[in-house]
Amino acid sequence: GAGVSQSPRYKVAKRGQDVALRCDPISGHVSLFWYQQALGQGPEFLTYFQNEAQLDKSGLPSDRFFAERPEGSVSTLKIQRTQQEDSAVYLCASSPRGREAGGIQETQYFGPGTRLLVL
Amino acid sequence: AQTVTQSQPEMSVQEAETVTLSCTYDTSENNYYLFWYKQPPSRQMILVIRQEAYKQQNATENRFSVNFQKAAKSFSLKISDSQLGDTAMYFCAFMKLRGSQGNLIFGKGTKLSVKP
Predict the structure, then answer these.
(1) Dihedral over Cα of A60, A63, A65, A70: its sign
(2) Taking the C-alpha atoms of A48, A117, B109 and B40 in order, what is their torsion angle to the nearest 10 degrees?
(3) C-alpha distance from residue A28 to each of A24, A110, B89 (Å)
(4) CA B115, CA B12: separation in Å to the nearest integer?
(5) Residues B28, B53: contact at Cβ < 8 Å?
(6) Do B95 and A3 touch (CB under 8 A)?
(7) Residues of A in contact with B33 (CB under 8 A)
(8) Distance of CA A46 to the CA centre of its chain
(9) pLDDT tens across A70-106, in order?
(10) How far, in Å, CA of A78 to CA of B53, rounded?
């Protein structure tokens, strides 16, 4: 079946531009995570959705970062007024259930990532 | 705060040999999960193996096994009969249960090269 897809795969932005990164999770998956992976580092958590509800946004580095999942499926991560330090790979992951359904430990299925380069 | 440390930035192993990747973590939690994820070059990250902290028995998945030492906060991954397809970045990850929605805390990774 189809896995997690992300678009675009690569994005070059000039400093100060706004960008929008899209994630299509596996169909029916309740949980959706966004991670940021800087060069040579492990992924770092940004935000979590359970269906359309954003239950944790503690990892968002600044108020320039905004994420949404309005219909509980596709999610968009938006970065306003991009800075050079925003250059990274942005990973999306989904899992079948949420915490209340006992699914907190389930496998997270990752997308291929969007590589963002801010010049 | 929880931290995950992978002290081996790069490792190499001959095909068919065994290799062990190290991971240590720091937490005050008693209940948590530990994971090893594999990120092949230019491909998606996939789960290799998971361990529940309250289970003493070490997890095993085919050629992959872990050595979980809870008191020492150590969680190493052993790959037996290494294959060329095992070449990848390997990330150790921690997930606490209390007050968590399931987000993972990753180490910096170990780049494993399997040589023919």
Answers:
(1) positive
(2) 90
(3) 11, 15, 29
(4) 7
(5) no
(6) no
(7) 105
(8) 7
(9) 999 999 999 999 999 999 999 999 999 887 777 777 8
(10) 36
- Looking at per-residue pLDDT, the higher value among B103 and A76 belongs to A76
List the structure tokens of A33: 């995570």
Check if the beta carbon of residue B47 is closer than 8 Å to that of residue A108: yes
- Which amino acid belongs to residue A92? C
Which pLDDT value is given to residue A104? Answer: 77
The vertex-A38 CA angle with A35 and A40, nearest 5°, equals 125
**pLDDT at residue A98, as a whole number:** 81
Amino acid at B110: T
Question: What are the chain A neighbours of B59 within 8 Å (beta carbons)?
Answer: none
Q: How many CB pairs under 8 A join A and B?
A: 68
Neighbour tally for B114: CB within 10 Å: 20
How many other C-beta atoms can be found within 10 angstroms of the C-beta atom of residue B47? Answer: 16
Residue A60's identity, in one-letter code, is: L
d(CA B11, CA B113): 6
Contact check, Cβ <8 Å, A110/B106: no
Q: Evaluate whether A46 touches A59 at the Cβ level (below 8 Å).
A: yes
